[in-house]
Amino acid sequence: PSRREAIMPPNKEGCRRGMALFLVMILFITHATLFSTCDAFQITSSPSLLQQKSAIVRTFGQQSNDNNNNNNKGCRRIYFDISINNEPIGRLLFRLSPDNPLPLHTENICKLCASAKTSIDPAATYVGCAFDYGRDYIESAGNYRWSHVLKGKGRNAIGVPTDILREEEGVAVPSHSCFGGSYYGSPFVSAQEEDGSDESAGVCLTVPMSGPGRGSTRLAIVRVGESPSAWKERLLLNSAIIGVLEDGLDALRVMARQSSGPPVVAASGVLLEDEMKEGEEVERD
Questions:
Q1: CA distances, 253 to each of 70, 71, 90, 209, 219 (Å)
Q2: Do the Cβ atoms of 223 and 231 come closer than 8 Å?
Q3: What is the DSSP secondary structure assignment for residue 98, as one 8-state letter?
Q4: Does the predicted TM-score (pTM) go above 0.85?
Q5: CA–CA gap between residue 14 and residue 149 (Å, rounded)
Q6: Please, which residues have CB within 8 angstroms of residue 206's CB and are 6 or more apart in sequence?
Q7: How far apart are CA 266 and CA 280, in angstroms?
Q8: What is the pLDDT of residues 191-217, one digit of tens each?
Q9: Averaged pLDDT, 268-274
């Protein structure tokens, strides 16, 4: 071999060419990446595009709320079949407020009553839950609160089960003043008029707006109409009326006047508007 070939073998020349091509490719990729980053920065920093994105998000949220409201319109009544020491005492049937003052809370309670999410979360139901029990919930005990609290299992049927429910922005929850503060939702007078019972007992279905159980599965059955004059609407402070007792006053009185054990929800469910009409037609026949 010649002196040149001995100093620089042919394979070194190939290595040099390969290295040169590799450097060119690196420069090309770096150049393309820089341009892509600049373009992305221009897009995300454009005010008009950000406004369009916000508008899309708002529109999507509005459509979701409309769908939820449409579903809530169908859920007009809910019921609880009550038992004490495994002995059935009757059914509590509530008519939900027609103006639906708290759509998200109402939807959650409807789904819990219907056990709509138990295939995913077995605790998302009222079935098997006991009402609070003790001297405060026995009418003859002297400390009776004129209400019966059902805490549920603390697992909401909409959204993240353990998150506190908050009504969507723009949902104005009506507020009503009474001695000592305010209560929310439907006014008690309207709820009383909505009550179909002859005695107009004024039994309201409420959810807490502050304090323990707010935005969760907790609800209360409040006997406003039968309470002493010193109490009445004060029993509703910091809570919201979402419905009224339509049938089951005798069962509720049994719950209040017994001392053998906590009342338990043996079964629960919802009655849709179409089912109500069919039921009313059957009753008229």
A1: 34, 32, 11, 26, 18
A2: no
A3: T
A4: no
A5: 85
A6: 183, 185, 219, 220, 221, 222, 236, 239, 240, 241, 242
A7: 25
A8: 555 555 444 579 999 999 998 899 999
A9: 83
Q: Are 264 and 272 in contact (CB under 8 A)?
A: no
Residues 6+ apart with CB under 8 A from 89: 82, 83, 251, 254, 255, 263
Please state, as a whole number, how many other Cβ atoms lie within 10 Å of the Cβ of residue 149. 19
**pLDDT class of 170 with cuts at 50, 70, 90:** low
How many Å is the maximal CA-CA distance in the chain?
121
Q: Which residues contact 255 (CB under 8 A, 6 or more apart)?
A: 82, 84, 89, 131, 148, 263
Name the one residue in this structure whose structure tokens are 């805490």. Answer: 151
In this predicted structure, what is the pLDDT of residue 255?
96
Question: What tokens does 40 get?
Answer: 């992305």
pLDDT on residue 259:
93
- pLDDT higher for 131 or 181? 131
- Residue that has been written with the tokens 């393309």 in this structure: 32
Q: Residue 25: pLDDT above 60?
A: yes
Mean pLDDT along residues 61-75 = 44
Q: What is the pLDDT of residue 7?
A: 47
Q: Give helix 47-74 / helix 103-114 axis angle, nearest 10°.
A: 50
Tokens read off for 41: 């920065």
Phi then psi dihedrals of residue 86, to 5 deg? 65, 15
Distance of alpha carbon 67 from alpha carbon 63, whole angstroms: 6
* Residue 11 Cα distances to 5, 16, 23, 44, 267, angstroms: 11, 9, 19, 50, 85
Identify which of 218, 97, 233, 90 has the alpha carbon closest to the alpha carbon of residue 148: 218
Average pLDDT estimate for 251-267: 96
